[in-house]
Every structure is written in structure tokens, then in C-alpha cells.
Amino acid sequence: MPIPEKHPVLTDGVVTLRAPRPDDVQGQIDRNREDPARDDEDARRWITFGITEAWAAGWRLAFVVEFRGRYAGTASLKPDADGNARVTYGLSEWARGAGVASRAVRLLLEFGFGTCGFRVVHWWARVGNWPSRRVAWATGFRLGDTIPGLAKEGGRPIDAWTGWIGPMDPRTPRRPWYVAPVLETPRLRLRAWREDEIPRITAARTNEATAHFLPFIPQPFTAEDARYWLKSLDEQAASGHRYNWCLADAGTDLGLGNLTLFNLNDDGAGELGFWAHADAQGRGLTAEAIHCVAGWFFSPDGQNGHRLLIRTAATNTPARRVAESAGFRHAGTEREGFRVATRQDDLVSYDLMAGDLAG
Q: How far is CA 62 from CA 23, 107, 319, 357, in A?
């Protein structure tokens, strides 16, 4: 199907995609000031004739995004020689966080597939551009490989996330994006980890017990390892794989340990993993955090779950005591089911049901 000669007006009743107008110049100028590589004259050229010329040449089908009656950004489809297109989008700061970009992308997809006849729409963004990735996630893109050096930014090659979507694919998320809520107990505040807590993380994860019971964790656990681990937490959440909480002291906010909720499945089950800094051990803090997360997990406001598991090596006495202190019951033993540093240990399972916690 041919590309229309002039901009159509696309709207879902909240967001409108349209051709540029002279009164959009100031909005583009304000947005460009967030990017030091662009100046006011770039904004004037883009709004006054750049968008129109790019459309006429067929190399970029760009729209102004209008929200609440004013310029809110731009969104584009960039056709390629194979009958496909790449989607791009960017919003003014005032319009972010209200679902505007997702609405704009859905309008673009309907236009691209229904009017222009594109077979596939591609997306990529610099690794670490979480707002762009969240829009791609919200609009149903299938995430592909991370490609090293896919593009250049500031003259330097950058790694990029990639994704794609087809005309028959739903325009809704394909998997959950976990956002761990902040939870509180009398002694703890369960929150996200911060970059400035790397020394606490390295100290907590460098010890003989970790080396023995979790031999896949590097020893010593360096600052570089901690930075990589912190980045992986964002990926685990965005991929719908894990929730992670830092167990912080309620009074001082000092990081004391970590609690992970993973292996979530459709039958309402989940599994917990945990570790604690040496100065937090033996005080019942991890059990207190587990009890708190369990209450959230079983609640309608949480996961509305049914069963929680804790699994560990049979000889890991401290971990077993934590599970028992948190009210978990021994559910079974698998002989030689847990690999420790030097041999196969037995694996013990503990579980907690929603009814157990209520009792």
C-alpha cells in the first residue's frame, strides 16, 4: 500500500499524531535543550520544513505528538528497502510518565501496518535506555538480541537492545515487568539497591560460606562483580523473572542483605532466595523480611500467590534456621540434589502456604 502524500491525523482520543505547525517550534526548542548536540535552529528547521521534506522523500514518516492540546514530542517510522520500518519516539519532559509514548507507538503501528503495509516494525535503543525499552515492552515488541556496537552515540559505538513486532501481534506486554514495592517491618525497609552500596554488597558476598554453598559466585566478589549484579537486577525485573529487595535498616537505611522472589508461575507458586551481611546475621532480620514479603506475595495487592518455597543444601544450617524461623515447614529432601563446592549435598525444601501465614 502506498504511503500517503500528506500527514493523516491519527488519534485515540487522548493522544494525537499530526503534521507539524508553526506553534510547535517552541516545544521542539524546549525539547532540544535536553540534548546538548542540538540547538534552537535545528528545532526551527525540523518543524518548519524538515518533517515535511522527510515525509515527501519517504525516508522518515514523522508526526508531532500532541497531548493535552500542545506539542509533546515526535514519533516516526523510518521505512527500509525491504518493506519494513523502524520506530523512533521522543517526548518532552513534561509529557513523560503518562503513557503518551505507548499510545503514540500504538497509533504508529496501526498506521504502518494498516496504511503503509509494512511487514515488520523494528525497534532498538541504547543499552540502559530503560524508558525507551519500557515503551517497547508496553506496546508488545518481542525483545531480541543485544547487539554490540550497533550504532554510534557521540561518535562512539554503543551496544543496543533490539526488538520487533508484526501486524498480527498484540499491542500489549508479552510478559510482566516486575516493580518491587517498598515494604516495611518494625526493623527493616525493603527497597531497591543503590549504586553507592557496592562496598556493602562485595563484603556480604565474599566469605567462605558463600564460596561453599554457592560456588558459582566469584570469590572474592569484587566491585566490578557487584556493578554487574546491580545491572542484572534491572534486567531480571524487566524480563519478568525476579523481584529483588535490599533489606535496609529502618532507622539508618544501611543495606543489610538481599531477598529475591523468583520461579513465579501460573499456579501461584514462587521461590525465595536470600543472603545477609555479616553484621546482620543472627538477629532474625532475614526471617522478618521473609515474613513481610510472604504477606505481600499472598495478598491480592501482591501476587495473590498460593505457595512459597525455600530450597537449600541440607548442611546449610543457618539458611534452614531462617526458613524455620519464618514459619516454613520442611516439605522434602532430594538426595544429592544440591551442588556445593566439593560435592553433591542433599537438597532440602521448605514451603509456606497462604493458610499457614494466616494462621
A: 17, 12, 57, 55
User: With contact defined as beta carbons under 8 Å apart, do 140 and 172 qualify?
Assistant: yes
Question: Per the CATH hierarchy, to which homologous superfamily does domain 10-165 belong?
Answer: Gcn5-related N-acetyltransferase (GNAT) (3.40.630.30)
Contacts of 170 (CB under 8 A, 6+ apart): 140
The residues, any chain, with a CB within 8 Å of residue 172's CB and separated by 6 or more, are 138, 139, 140
Second-level CATH architecture of 183-358? 3-Layer(aba) Sandwich (3.40)
Helix (H, G, I), strand (E, B) or coil at 124: strand
DSSP conformational letter for 99: S
What is the pLDDT tens value at each position of the chain, 359 positions in all?
Answer: 578 988 999 999 999 999 999 999 999 999 888 776 677 888 899 999 999 999 999 999 999 999 999 999 999 999 999 999 999 999 999 999 999 999 999 999 999 999 999 999 999 999 999 999 999 999 999 999 999 999 888 889 999 999 999 999 999 999 999 999 999 999 999 999 999 999 999 999 999 999 999 999 999 999 999 999 999 999 999 999 999 999 999 999 999 999 999 999 888 999 999 999 998 999 999 999 999 999 999 999 999 999 999 999 999 999 999 999 999 999 999 999 999 999 999 999 999 999 887 65
Residue span(s) of the chain under CATH 3.40.630.30 come to 10-165, 183-358
CB atoms within 10 A of CB 224: 11
